[in-house]
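Protein 1 of 2
SEQ + STRUCT:
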Amino acid sequence: MMQQVIVSTEVLETRYLEFKSFIEKKDAKPFASFKSSEFLIKEEGYKSSIYKAARQSLNSALWKIQDIGKGIIQNYVASTIIDAVEHGDRSVNNNLIVWSNKDLLKDLPSSKDLDAALYDLYKNKVTDEKSFDRLQRAGLNYQFLAYLFFIKDQNIFTPISQEKFDKIFSLIGIPEFRTSRNISWENYKAFIDIIKQVRGFLKTKDKEATLLDAHSFLWVLGNQMLEAPVAKKFSAKPQVQELVSEVVPQPEDAPHVELPVIAEEDEASAFPEGKEKFRLHRIKERSRELVNAVKDRALQEDEKLCCQACGFSFVEKYGKLGEGFIEAHHLFPISELKEETQTKLDDLALVCSNCHRMLHRRRPWLTLENLKALLQLSSE
């Protein structure tokens, strides 16, 4: 059984702030909810329109068990792969399936087994796992299968674009999870679980956020925002992320503190860190200039960006997906930084995700040298 992949709420908080800023620029008004955003309705709302149209074409209420083996059920399901859908005042192409695969089901030879597998999927006669496995054996690929499950119930399943989402998962701090060339029910189930975790987080911002909203949130992060020239804080380059283990609540009347800006020409390579953004200190905004400068300096000496504690390299393990990925660890807790503190490049260490968690595992935090010593002992 595949181990559950946990998405950090701190990383999601950072990405949400970037997302919110992006949507507000697009809508030219404050972001209140997914349903009220004109940009999201226009760019992402077509998925719901496709779902409705596909459900009408599916018409599974009319299916009869005696239809199995006649190709009738296969034709009904194949008809859900619509070319385009009316969405608002325009026609939108169905981009949930690569068009080179749109006739995949239609072109399969009709058979009793195929009809039975489709019938059982939409009539809930067998488990979803069994349906997935049967249809995979019939010759359907991962994206097509995910689409069939999506049109079964949009509140439980979503479409998938494997390579796109693998890159998106790196943006939210889980580069180890991959869907490309990993077709299986366990993998799809894990994918859906990640989307559900994101939905749970989004419900803290918009109580009506749906599973499809979570899917769209991630899609915008990994596509429209990366392509937008206005996204100053969001970079297509892999980001060095600093994760916070604990957030210290502040009183309701805690003052909002703005830290001084350090001029670009400052020769000490020091940047302000930890500007108080929210009264409850849910998360402290990280200086992208600082972490990128640390990574750039490290790349000049080590193109593999090896962990400074254990030597692990994401690019060695994951290939192109892992290029440029590493996490930044403050050598002393960020919660101890004072308003006037300026964090220098040498105040950060670059470590892998596992070592980062171990450094934060107990109080007081382990030092980098402590962790190196533990690793050396465990290898002897």
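Protein 2 of 2
SEQ + STRUCT:
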Amino acid sequence: MTGTDVSRDIRTAPRRTVLISGAGVAGPALAFWLNRYGFAVTVVERAGAPRGGGYPVDVRGTALEVVRRMGILPGLRDAHIDLRRLTFLDRDGGEVASVDPHTVTGGVAGADLEVRRGDLTGALYTAVRDDVEFLFNDRIDTLDQSGHGVDVTFLGGSRRTFDLVCGADGLHSRTRAFLFGPEEQFHRYLGYCFAGFTLRDTFGLSHETIMWNTPGRAAALYAPGDNDEVHALLNFAHPEPPFEAFRNPQAQRDLVTAVFADAGWEVPGLLAAMRDADDLFFDAVSQIRMPRWSSGRVALVGDAAYAPSFLTGQGSSLALVGAYMLASSLADRDHAAGFAAYEHSTREFVTVNQDQVGEGDATLFPTTARALEQRNDMLRNLGAMPPGEGRPAHSALTLPAFTPMT
């Protein structure tokens, strides 16, 4: 099925109205498919425009079929980052091992995609921008389901009523908080925090990642190879989520600087670059695990409902697949039956991918000297092995066919 195929849907009136909160990955993908199923879609996004740049993300397994059906796969292939080498360093910067990245990530060479997040979100936005309404520089302020629809008040002051609302607003979803209460009850902290930012490439890197480790600490440089910038990641074990730092950029910088104060290799220079970075992103490494993804006429999709953490490399893929499955489930059902079908058809796929934690993180971020030594021995053996065929979890769901409403 091609993008042309899916555009041959026949609209019927009246069209159900849907508000989607969030224009990242899940939001525009959901908007695309709901529009194809005949819904009138509005997307609200607090940023002023689709966000460009960002750290590279992966599209794997079942998610590749989603973007193929959307007609955006060729463009994403053109944007693919051909990462060729992953090198691990010891405390002093000496090489421990250099391996094919796919042997660690579980990806499939020549099939899976790795693209800048902005390239993916840009492709999704372009695919749907002419067919749905986008409201930038705004967000949901209140939700009221006491009537026959969902009465929404926007932060900008306007009020509208929608048949359905979908929260695609990320790990720290406001929509989820409106429906289910504080994030802490669904937040599964995985024991790490990280700071990511970009800096000028003065290291001579290209199409590769270099990772320095000591127990409980890691510093990585990711070089896509098509410009003079590299992405830096400083990751560290921390016993509890540092909630006091999440909304305080200076506290974030101070915490990371303290943790890496005695680190060698290039870390002192990375700390200096972090202090001046205008794109610093700091967060806990965590998952969202919920017993249900909807309440009344409001549902959640992507990280808002089931963030798997970057340790799995499956956040974007789950968002794409979840968006497709939610739209498909609603196509010929009312909201109650549709949301139930969405959970029934998608939860197992979500769970098996969230459970991939432990596959990659043990390799990347050992927390003890013994675990680091074992990791290094494993990597030395891994360097001589060819990449595998990918993890079954990545393709553990078969998409239903797209059937336009007539």
